[in-house]
Write a structure and sequence with these properties.
- The protein is mostly helical.
- Helix content is about 60%, strand content about 0%.
- The chain has one domain: Orthogonal Bundle (Helicase, Ruva Protein, domain 3).
- The chain has four helices and no strands.
């Protein structure tokens, strides 16, 4: 959330948009997620997991 607020401020806004959050998900979560060895053997990587979550979660209106 702090990163999203910082991005919004840098872009001249005092509010966060869903795009702020989506833009920062990969750099923030990439090193924090650890996949099970079975998942990695299936050829699935962290980036794919993050993308799947972003695609499946609806943006609130």
């Amino acid at each position: 959330m702090k990163c999203s607020k910082a991005r919004a401020a840098i872009l001249g806004r005092n509010y966060v948009t869903p795009d702020d959050v989506k833009e920062l998900c990969t750099p923030v979560l990439n090193h924090r997620l650890m996949l099970k060895p079975e998942t990695e053997l299936e050829g699935i990587n962290v980036q794919q997991v993050i993308n799947r979550v972003l695609d499946e979660v609806d943006v609130p209106i």
